[in-house]
């Protein structure tokens, strides 16, 4: 972790809009960054508000952007419509998220009041949201610093550097909570970034 800390000096965890974070991580499943970005842009163009920007200083070139659509703006979107835009099986997960948030069966406003486990369970009511996606939303959308999303890279880091320590605990989660003492989210990002960029020898 010391290597990661030195390599990641200045690394910050953003606090993003919870709804946008939820949908973005639903779309991230079995996907890569350019495609995730493309799907998010398609969703914004489909139902977001149009914004015109005239540039700065001497640049008078007008550009058009779109806001990320709210659950209300997506209330009439269909699975078929999203599939036609290339969302694939994720289309039904986005539609389910919209329906559950609008009906109140998933309350995005109250999640901040919950414990990590309660918040996870609330998000996992949505189809396609498992522990990893829920933890990503809780870390990046709600500021749950103890959330520790485990993807392929983080799993490799844990097995490479903490395998012996983890054996003394009942579960990987129990190890993470005690070892990183509530700062698992930041540790996770540092381990991920450092290992992925080949900084460990």
Which properties best describe this structure?
single chain; 201 residues; mainly alpha; two-stranded antiparallel sheet; 11 helices; 2 strands; globular
How is this structure best summarized?
The chain is 53% helix and 4% strand.
Structure classification: mainly alpha
Approximate shape: globular
What's the alpha carbon Rg, rounded to whole Å?
Answer: 19 Å
Q: Please count the beta strands (DSSP E, at least 2 residues each).
A: 2
User: Strands of the biggest beta sheet: in what spatial order?
Assistant: 1-2
Q: Unreliable stretches, pLDDT < 50, 5 or more residues?
A: none
Order of secondary-structure elements: HHHEEHHHHHHHH
Mean of residue pLDDT?
A: 93
* Main sheet summary: 2 strands, antiparallel
Helical content (DSSP H or I, runs of 4+): 40-55%
Gap from first CA to last CA: 13 Å
Strand content: under 5%
Helices, by number, come to: 11
Description of the molecule:
By secondary structure, this protein is mainly alpha-helical. Helices cover 53% and strands 4% of the residues. It contains 11 helices and 2 strands. Strands 1-2 form a two-stranded antiparallel sheet. Helix 6 (116-123) crosses helix 7. The longest helix is centred in the first third of the chain and has 15 residues, at 33-47. The protein starts with a helix and ends in a 5-residue tail after the last helix.
Write the layout of secondary structure elements.
Blueprint (H helix, E strand, L loop, with lengths): L1 H6 L10 H10 L5 H15 L2 E4 L9 E4 L12 H6 L5 H14 L12 H8 L7 H12 L9 H10 L1 H4 L5 H8 L4 H13 L5
Antiparallel strand pairs: 1-2
Helix pairs in contact: 2-7, 6-7, 8-11
């Amino acid at each position: 972790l010391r290597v990661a800390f030195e390599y990641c000096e200045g690394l910050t965890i953003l606090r993003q809009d919870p709804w946008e974070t939820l949908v973005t991580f639903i779309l991230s499943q079995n996907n890569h960054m350019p495609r995730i970005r493309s799907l998010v842009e398609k969703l914004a163009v489909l139902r977001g508000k149009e914004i015109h920007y005239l540039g700065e200083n001497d640049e008078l070139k007008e550009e058009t952007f779109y806001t990320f659509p709210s659950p209300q703006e997506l209330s009439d979107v269909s699975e078929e419509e999203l599939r036609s835009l290339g969302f694939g099986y994720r289309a039904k997960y986005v539609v389910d998220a919209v329906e559950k948030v609008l009906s109140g069966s998933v309350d995005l406003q109250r999640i901040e009041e919950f414990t990590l486990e309660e918040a996870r369970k609330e998000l996992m009511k949505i189809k396609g949201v498992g522990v990893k996606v829920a933890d990503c939303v809780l870390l990046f959308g709600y500021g749950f610093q103890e959330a520790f999303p485990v993807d392929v890279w983080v799993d490799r880091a844990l097995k490479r550097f903490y395998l012996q320590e983890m054996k003394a605990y009942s579960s990987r989660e129990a190890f993470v909570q005690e070892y990183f003492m509530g700062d698992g989210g930041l540790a996770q990002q540092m381990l991920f970034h450092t290992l992925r960029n080949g900084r460990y020898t």
